[in-house]
Design goal:
Layout lengths: L2 E6 L2 E6 L3 E6 L13 E7 L2 E7 H4 L11 E5 L5 E5 L1 E6 L4 E4 L5 E7 L2 E6 L9 H5 L5 H4 L8 E8 L2 E6 L3 E6 L13 E6 L4 E6 H6 L10 E7 L2 E7 L1 E8 L15 E7 L2 E6 L7 H6 L15 E8 L2 E6 L3 E5 L14 E7 L2 E7 H4 L13 E7 L2 E7 L1 E12 L7 E7 L2 E6 L1 H4 L2 H24 L11
Parallel strand pairs: 2-11, 5-7, 13-21, 16-18, 23-31, 26-28
Antiparallel strand pairs: 1-2, 1-8, 3-6, 4-5, 6-7, 9-10, 10-11, 12-13, 12-19, 14-17, 15-16, 17-18, 20-21, 22-23, 22-29, 24-27, 25-26, 27-28, 29-30, 30-31
């Protein structure tokens, strides 16, 4: 079951989505004499008179209506509204549940060390229907609503316009989290994040639709969609409210990119385009959409050890069993006619090892700055030793590995560490075989020249064996 999360006095509450009719901004509430104190009054919602509960008063909090308040319209025997501080998102799964003996609280839901108070909506309002019957209602409010199947739409903002998504396609809504970048993917895919042991590709919806980059601010949200089991996070400017509609109207034929939308709906004199999320899902999204191979992410025994290192403020990882050693960078010898990402050779206790500049290999536009924190990681790849240059490398961690299939040849998967998504490199793909052959030939020729020079100079070190 899905639940709507909302905040009241800095505490998380929730209500089953099935009981929600819609969410609206605070509007004029007409107070009614002799009603209970917790009844804020009545509102006229499209001709229907609905009582509104001041939830803070009902639950014993200090009354404090502020400009961020929302009214959630709830469906019981008769609809009524509750005033909340703000809505926060959707809770789509629960790890545990604790029953409550409170009249107004059904239970406490727990997920990821957070508590969500599930309200018992049946007991939130107790008004004798005779009091409501005495009110003089408009003719419209007396009309019986047609029994039709309504579609629930979530409205969000994009490019200063309102758009909609059917609630059936939404898994959850979370605050924006900067994704980890991956190269060789479409530009509108900004990277990946890990959400509860799953890799979720992040799509800049504004860029996907209009070729405009979304400007990130405190209101930016990620809408996690699920289309036939394939998931993606959509970057949107903000999320607003839910509405129930009887019909999604078809778009005119002249509309460009018509396949990207289910149609449109009318709401308060506004036309809201309803997105068809299926157009987001392509082979790149599918390839990045993989579940973790590990089921118990809290079991350190099953996790592998990795060396964490940084490049351009991004975190990467290499399996520690592939690491021979980590050192500060020493003088390098340039290799003629080598790929631009090969910085040269370093001498490690008499052994010449090619050093790979990972920034250049990843086509980064930033210059390589050697600092006191720079390190070379010497690794073994198919029996050959290579060294990788990194901005820093000094952390050993246990991580749960999540295998992904991507067009990015350098990434074999991700790890989830301390809430961050770490890209795990495939060392076999960092350097191509033909480049490796060329490096070995160049390496041998340089070493031969060095030995000959030392021999001519009668240097005792000429007897040193180089491999």
């Amino acid at each position: 079951m899905n639940y709507l999360i909302f905040e009241l006095n800095k505490q998380n509450y929730c209500i089953p989505m099935l009981k929600i009719i819609e969410i609206i901004r605070i509007k004029k509430i007409t107070r009614i004499p002799l009603f209970p104190e917790y009844i804020q009054g009545l509102i006229n919602l499209r001709g229907e008179i609905i009582p509104v509960v001041n939830l803070k008063v009902r639950l014993g909090y200090k009354e404090d209506l502020n400009r961020f308040s929302k009214i959630i319209i709830i469906k019981e025997n008769k609809p009524f509204g509750i005033i909340v501080d703000r809505t926060k998102g959707i809770l789509n799964s629960v790890e545990s549940e604790i029953e409550s003996k409170s009249k107004y609280v059904e239970s406490i839901l727990k997920k990821e060390n957070k508590d969500y108070i599930l309200l018992n909506t049946k007991h939130l309002i107790e008004i004798k229907r005779t009091k409501l019957n005495k009110l003089k209602l408009t003719k419209t409010s007396k009309m019986k609503r047609k029994k039709i199947q309504l579609k629930k739409i979530m409205v969000f903002e994009l490019n200063h316009e309102k758009y909609g998504l059917m609630i059936d396609n939404i898994q959850e809504i979370v605050r924006y989290k900067a994704p980890d970048k991956i190269s060789k993917i479409p530009e509108y895919i900004k990277g990946i994040i890990t959400v509860r042991d799953e890799v979720i590709p992040i799509v800049d919806l504004n860029y996907r639709l209009y070729n405009k980059i979304t400007l990130i601010n405190e209101n930016t949200k990620l809408i996690i969609i699920n289309v036939k089991g394939i998931k993606a996070g959509l970057i949107v400017d903000n999320t607003y409210f839910f509405v129930d509609v009887s019909e999604i109207k078809k778009l005119p034929h002249i509309i460009k990119n018509k396949k990207n939308f289910k149609g449109f709906l009318k709401y308060k004199n506004e036309s809201i385009m309803v997105l068809e999320p299926g157009f987001i899902i392509n082979e790149s999204i599918k390839a990045l959409n993989k579940k973790s191979e590990k089921k118990n992410i809290n079991d350190d025994i099953k996790k592998e050890k990795y060396i964490l290192f940084r490049l351009d403020n991004e975190k990467y990882a290499i399996k520690i069993k592939s690491i021979i050693e980590i050192n500060k960078i020493n003088n390098t010898t340039k290799i003629p006619k080598s790929p631009d990402y090969v910085k040269g050779l370093i001498n490690l206790r008499g052994e010449a090892i090619p050093i790979i500049d990972l920034k250049k290999r990843f086509k980064s536009t930033k210059h390589v700055n050697i600092t006191e924190f720079s390190r070379v990681m010497v690794v073994s790849v198919e029996g050959k030793k290579l060294a990788f240059l990194a901005d820093s490398a000094n952390e050993i961690v246990h991580m749960n590995f999540i295998k992904i299939k991507s067009d990015n040849q350098f990434v074999m998967g991700t790890g989830d560490y301390d809430g961050d998504t770490i890209l795990v490199l495939d060392l076999k793909k960092i350097i191509q075989k033909n480049d490796l052959v060329l490096l070995n030939k160049s390496k041998e020729s340089i070493l031969t020249a060095t030995i000959n020079k030392r021999t001519r100079e009668n240097d005792p070190l000429s007897k040193k064996k180089f491999n």
